[in-house]
Write a structure and sequence with these properties.
329 residues, alpha/beta, Rossmann fold, 2 domains, five-stranded parallel sheet, four-stranded parallel sheet, binds N-carbamoyl-L-aspartate
């Protein structure tokens, strides 16, 4: 599938109409999402309060690929904004009877959908849908192939900001299967847009993208050097389902060379935080002692996912309102 220009996600006022990728966005787009997300979190209790804003709006979650955290937190976020929520079960839908994606889409639009949240195993699927929806319908990418997972990257930025304040000062190391991870692509874009001091990627050469320099990152094949003095460690799993051939001798070998253990965590700053988008494969990319240890913020990431997804959804609807108000003047 061809990836269309990322700026189809911006409206004529330069504001987000869809949320498909972080590529091409400016720091103010990202900080607005983080600020709005933060405003939903009660500073005393950490609770995420219900809002009254999206009464009468219908949001449809179209997940063509498995998901635990992303689908559930989108659903909670939509309900906390008071929208009507439909989860389309693709396994039992008519796409299984030969209906094309576009026919499915147009039928859902006829049911008065206002937003589609899309996860698909093909890169470019969310862009494709965004190119074909009616003008009032918004599309949010919940992960497409190896391409992008922008809401995950934004919830990671919120988690970092909550613990470390200014992303600008930080050295961030991402370890694991860099090449096949849509999460890492979006994280690198977010960290670059927010001007993190240093972005490192750590892993075996077989799991690195072909031109890492173009991403503005520092590449390390040695975990000890890569983790030296970093503020944030992001661990990602081996995306075995995306590897076309065996790129590693074994999972055990990977753990021996790159698994995040307490001993290796000690190379980073003493107050470094450990993150992981999930699903976690214990004993493959991370030791249980680290995943469950005091520096781990893995479950906080999940909770912040609700606030970030609420923020993205609300901003898209607000931008459409502001645009309509501007046009009717
Ligand atoms: C990721 C995904 O599906 O891209 N998980 C998530 O959304 N939290 C990461 C993965 O599958 O490894």
């Amino acid at each position: 599938m061809r990836l269309s220009k990322p700026n189809i996600q911006l409206n004529s006022q330069g504001k987000l109409r869809h949320f498909l990728t972080l590529e091409g966005l400016k720091a103010h787009h990202l900080t607005e999402i983080l600020d709005v997300a933060d405003s939903f979190i009660d500073p005393e209790t950490g609770d995420i309060r219900k809002q009254d804003t999206l009464h009468g709006k219908a949001i449809m979650n179209l997940f063509f690929e498995a998901s635990t955290r992303t689908l559930t937190t989108f659903e909670i976020a939509e309900k906390r904004l008071s929208a009507d929520v439909v989860n389309l079960n693709i396994a039992t839908s008519s796409t299984k009877k030969g209906e094309t994606l576009l026919d499915t889409l147009w039928n859902l639009e006829a049911m008065m959908a206002d937003m589609f949240v899309v996860r698909h195993n093909e890169s470019g699927a969310a862009h494709f849908i965004a190119n074909h929806v009616a003008p009032h319908v918004h599309v949010v990418n919940a992960g497409d192939g190896q391409h992008a997972h922008p809401t995950q990257a934004m919830l990671d930025m919120l988690t970092i900001r909550k613990h470390k304040n200014d992303i600008f000062d930080l050295k961030v190391a991402i370890i694991g299967d860099i090449q096949h991870s849509r999460v890492v692509r979006s994280q690198i874009q977010a960290l670059s847009i927010l001007e993190a001091r240093e972005i490192r990627i750590i892993g075996p050469a077989t799991l690195m993208p072909s031109h890492p320099e173009a991403l503005g990152v520092h590449v390390y094949n040695d975990i000890k050097e890569g983790l030296d003095n970093v503020d944030v460690i992001i661990n990602v799993r081996l995306q075995n389902e995306r590897m076309k051939s065996a790129l590693l001798p074994s999972e055990k070998e990977f753990f021996n060379l790159y698994g995040l253990t307490n001993e290796r965590l000690a190379y980073a700053k003493p107050d470094a935080i450990v993150m992981h988008p999930g699903p976690v494969n214990r004993g493959v990319e991370i030791d249980s002692e680290v995943a469950d240890g005091p520096q781990s913020v893995i479950l906080e990431q999940v909770t912040y996912g609700i606030a970030v997804r609420m923020a993205v959804i609300q901003i898209l609807f607000n931008n459409a309102k502001a645009l309509a108000a501007g046009e009717s003047k």
